[in-house]
Amino acid sequence: MPQFQDHYKVLGLSRRDNPDAATIKSAYRQQALIWHPDKNKDPNVTEIIKTINTAHEVLSDPRKRHQYDIQFDFIEFSQRFDSSDFQARWNNNATKDTHKHYSSDYSWTQGQWQEMGGFPKGRARSSAFSNAH
Fold first, then answer.
1. d(CA 127, CA 130)
2. Which residues contact 25 (CB under 8 A, 6 or more apart)?
3. Which of 3, 12, 86, 129 has its CA 20 to 30 A from that of 33?
4. pLDDT tens track of the chain, all 133 residues?
5. Does some domain include residue 18?
6. Is residue 133 part of a domain?
7. 72: burial class by Cβ within 10 Å (0-12, 13-18, 19+)?
């Protein structure tokens, strides 16, 4: 499976800043100057320039950028909930007592029931309230 390339990072931008077309163009030109084969002697410069050009092509076209952002959100979400990590979180949370506030030994006073509109209809009153008036 190919590695997902973050086009915003390639151009030195932040996706959260929602850069406009001028910012994207400026960032592209800056990266193109830095990685130009005449100025940079890195052996992988050709691949880096291709990556920069692809990032600019995608981010400068509003429709491609929108599709990319949707894909990026999905991949980011799926990486956050990797199956093994999700299973571990699920198992960890399953051991916690999530119903401790709703235990059966909790009892209300008659005043609390009256504040809530009285006893529920169709249920017998507890003997605990029969002596209190």
1. 5
2. 56, 60
3. 3
4. 356 788 999 999 998 889 999 999 999 999 999 999 899 899 999 999 999 999 999 999 999 999 998 888 887 777 666 656 656 666 665 555 554 544 444 555 666 666 666 655 555 555 555 555 5
5. yes
6. no
7. middle
The answer to the question of residue 21 being in a domain is: yes
- Cα→Cα distances 89→38, 75, 79, Å: 51, 19, 14
H/E stretch holding 5: none
Token couple for 115 = 């504040």
Ramachandran assignment for 107, one of left (phi > 0), alpha (psi -120 to 50 degrees), beta (any other): beta
Which CATH number characterizes residue 38's domain?
1.10.287.110
Domain encompassing residue 29: 7-81
